Amino acid sequence: MTGRQINKSGGAERTFVLIFETGDEVMGGLQHFAEENRLCGSHFAAIGALRDVVLAWFNVQTRQYQRIPISEQVEVLSLNGDIAADEKGGVKVHAHIVIGKSDGSAHGGHLVEGHVRPTLEVILTELPQHLQRVFDPKSGLALIRV
User: Which domains does the chain have, with CATH numbers?
Assistant: First the structure.
C-alpha cells in the first residue's frame, strides 16, 4: 500500500489518498497507516476489488460478531469507515463494506479482513477534532463519544 497527503494547505484537515495493491490486506494496512500518521479522528471511503473478504455481523443478543467468509473475486461497491482513539490510547479502525459478486448479488457488514486484487483506492480525511471510542456496557460495543 502506498499513501500520501494530497492537500498541503496547512489547514485543520489533512486528506490522504491510499492505494492498495494486489495481495495487500485492507484492515491491517489501514490500521498501520492510522498509527503511523497519528490519525485519531478520521473518516474514509473506498472502491476497488478483493480476491477474498471476511465480513462480520454483530449479534446484539449474544454480543458477538458472526464471521462471514467469502472466498471469491468481488467488487468493492462501498467501503466506509472511521478511525478514532480507543480507551487504551491507541487507534481503532471501524469499517463497513458492501461487496458485489459476479452474479450481481451484494453482501455487506463489518470488514474484518480483505485481500486486494487488483486495487483498492481510499480517500481518507482527518477531522479537526479527535474522536474517542468508549466501551458501552449496554450494547457491548466501543462507541464514539461526542
Answer: 2-139 (3.30.1330.80)
